[in-house]
Design a protein that fits this description.
Blueprint lengths: L1 E7 L2 E6 L10 E11 L1 H9 L1 E2 L2 E2 L4 E2 L3 E9 L11 E4 L2 E2 L5 H5 L9 E2 L12 E5 L3 E3 L6 H5 L1 H14 L6 E5 L3 H12 L4 E6 L2 H7 L7 E5 L5 H8 L5 E6 L4 H6 L4 E9 L12 H4 L5 E4 L7 H9 L9 E6 L3 H10 L6 E5 L1
Parallel strand pairs: 13-14, 13-16, 14-15, 16-17, 17-18, 19-20
Antiparallel strand pairs: 1-2, 1-6, 3-7, 3-11, 3-20, 4-5, 7-8, 8-12, 9-10
Helix pairs in contact: 1-11, 4-5, 4-10
One zinc ion binds next to helix 2.
Length: 346
């Protein structure tokens, strides 16, 4: 089959590689149709590494994927050949303490696509297992299906943030994840959402979602912390989501949150320690938690998109063919051409 293979940093080549062979119970072969280009793919492309992962052998990137079932092993009955499905890219062991708790995203044996050692979806076929495939509603396209992956992150963040009816919320960073969190926070009943970015085009873009409930903050022109505190009479917001992954946005997250409020860290820090002020955590007792992927969120993401509570279509700004994966990774890595989300159609 044809695949885009990362050989080392900045070197992606189109190769003919063996089709994956099914050898285990529950397995399903999926003909890949659409794959989102994620910031993590771009990191692996640009630097040959991300956090503690290092690309030492050729690796097929891409983990935000939807396609069509083409083959199943005997005994599979949740999906059948011809089904259009979103592919949840991580398969846990199903046996460990965390899997049994339902917190399978914390499984130490997790096999997740497109991290070194596990090939991803910039290819014609991927293997999955029947309980990690989610049939797409009739009117949902493969491109939308692929974006159920980042939407699952936003669903998980919104659940962990405990966004309640009438909450005020701050979302620091209006990239793919921030824009999806904005929509899930609004769907959860937030009545005022401050959203900041350093790119004014992203802020113009988000105004289309419930403009009467959104306050945009251009972090290059305004001090985000002062602006949120001024607009809340010094109180701060009920819930804050950090969705940029920068020192500055981590630093101000607790400071823009009310006493007893909740901060949810979605961004992955490119440094070893979080820069919080101690007093925010003790005398103001802000609760902080971090998001790591998702568990049991794909069905929710699909229902939200199907019922129109979240619209993933407008975030797709770029489309690439499989031959063009390198260009997609470069544009995403350099944040050039005002990209929000690139999709590879295989
Ligand atoms: N926890 C998880 O499981 C998980 C899953 C997916 C992504 N992530 C992380 O979430 C973060 C966002 O991902 P993304 O795909 O949306 O990335 P992205 O690059 O599309 O979005 C980041 C946004 O933050 C903005 N930004 C930069 N500096 C800022 C500042 N000072 N104030 C406000 N905004 C600022 C950028 O302009 C950009 O629009 C990344 O750190 C990513 O690694 C985490
Ligand atoms: Zn992703
Ligand atoms: Zn497990």
């Amino acid at each position: 089959m044809k695949a885009a293979v990362l050989i080392e940093a900045k070197n992606v080549v189109i190769q003919d590689v063996p089709e994956p062979v099914m050898s285990k119970p529950n397995q399903v072969k999926v003909r890949v149709k659409s794959v989102g280009v994620c910031g993590s793919d771009a990191h692996f492309y640009q630097d040959g590494r991300l956090a503690d992962w290092v690309v030492e052998n050729p690796l097929i990137l891409g983990h935000e994927c939807a396609g069509e079932v083409v083959e199943v092993v005997p005994g599979v009955n949740r999906v059948t050949v011809g089904d259009r499905v979103a592919v949840e890219p991580g398969i846990p062991c199903r046996k460990c303490e965390w899997c049994k708790r339902g917190e399978y995203h914390l499984c130490p044996e997790m096999v997740f696509m497109a991290v070194p050692g596990v090939n991803g979806a910039f290819a014609e076929y991927v293997l999955s297992e029947e309980d990690f495939l989610f049939p797409l509603p009739e009117k949902m396209t493969f491109e939308e299906g692929a974006l159920m992956e980042p939407l699952a992150v936003a669903v998980e963040a919104t659940k962990l943030a405990e966004i309640f009816l009438g909450d005020s919320v701050a979302i620091l960073g209006a990239g793919t994840i921030g824009i999806l969190c904005l929509q899930t926070a609004l769907a959860a009943g937030a009545t005022k959402v401050f959203i900041s970015d350093i790119n004014p085009l992203k802020l113009d873009f988000v105004k289309r979602f419930s403009p009467d409930r959104i306050v945009t903050i251009d972090a290059t022109q305004t001090n985000t912390q002062e602006e949120i505190l001024k607009n809340t009479q010094g109180r701060g917001v009920d819930k804050t989501l950090e969705t940029a992954g920068t020192f500055e946005t981590f630093r101000i997250s607790p400071s823009v949150t009310r006493r007893g409020g909740r901060v949810t860290l979605v961004g992955i820090p490119p440094f070893q320690e979080y820069p919080f002020r101690a007093s925010d955590l003790f005398d103001r007792t802000v609760t902080i938690n971090a998001v790591y992927r998702y568990a049991n969120d794909y069905p929710i993401a699909i229902r939200l998109a199907d019922k129109g509570l979240v619209d993933v279509k407008p975030i797709i700004t770029h489309r690439f063919s499989l031959d063009d994966v390198k260009r997609g990774l470069e544009i995403t890595a350099n944040r050039s051409d005002n990209v929000i989300k690139g999709i590879v159609n295989v």
